[in-house]
Amino acid sequence: MDLPDAAVPITYQQAAEALGLTPPGTIQRVALALEALMHEDVAAGRPMIAALVVSRRGDMPRQGFFELAVELGRFPADPASQEAAYRRELDRIMEVR
Questions:
Q1: What are the backbone angles phi and psi of residue 35, rounded to the nearest 5°?
Q2: Which residues of 35-60 are buried (b: 16+ CB within 10 A; e: fewer)?
Q3: Alpha-carbon span 61 to 55, nearest angstrom
């Protein structure tokens, strides 16, 4: 949350390094932690901090993020609408950082 705006979003690998995680399973552990945060943030009515973490293969989170966001009722089920929902979520988290 303390990174400058220009430094976010970060990749799953960067998150693992920032947390001091070492192989094996670093990305999986980051994903599990982000999922727990998503549950907490949605339950508290906060923007999802997990939106700040993206795949190194693009500027979007992995598919599991979208699946859980739909399950939690934060994103629409229609995949065609999910990128826009993600962009709105990212804007929300950037506003409260």
A1: -60, -45
A2: beebeebbeeeebbbbbbbbbeeeeb
A3: 5
Mean pLDDT for each consecutive 10-residue tract of the chain (97 residues)? Answer: 85 94 94 97 97 92 97 98 97 91
3-state DSSP call for residue 54? strand
Supply angle C-alpha 32, 35, 41, rounded to 5: 145
What's the rounded Cα separation, in Å, for the pair 32 and 30?
5
Residue 72 φ/ψ, nearest 5 degrees: -80, -5
Q: What is the pTM assigned to this prediction? A: 0.91
Measured between alpha carbons, how far is 70 from 11 in angstroms, rounded to an integer? 21
Map tokens 């989170």 to a residue. 61
Q: Which residues pair with 11 in a beta bridge?
A: 54
